[in-house]
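[agent] plan:
  1. take the single chain provided in the ticket
  2. run structure prediction with default settings
  3. attach structure tokens to the ticket
  4. add a short note for the reviewer (M.T.)
[agent] executing step 1
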Amino acid sequence: MTSQQLEEQSQQLEARVATLETELIQMKQMLSGLLQNQNPWWLKVAGSFENDLTFDEAVRLGQEWRKSAEQVASIPNSFIQRNSEDGKRILTRLVTVEEVAVTC
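[agent] step 2 finished; step 3 output follows
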């Protein structure tokens, strides 16, 4: 490779690096502007379900389900019965949180 070819390649690389540096500066400016003006995401949704009867009902049903699940799981050696796809009965033993913690 001749010195002229090396010089040309060097100039091309320098131009590419200069372009990348300029683009990087522009991207940093765009990001800093977005991050400074942006409110946290949760501020957009906080209170959006206030006085919403459907949401209140969903919350109530979720609490009811969790409470019933906790009651069943708190019974030692409790089982639930279900049917498999081929119609056979399956008994599943429910474990408590303490049992899971001991086995981990």
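[agent] step 4 note for reviewer: Residues 3-75 form one domain.
[agent] ticket updated
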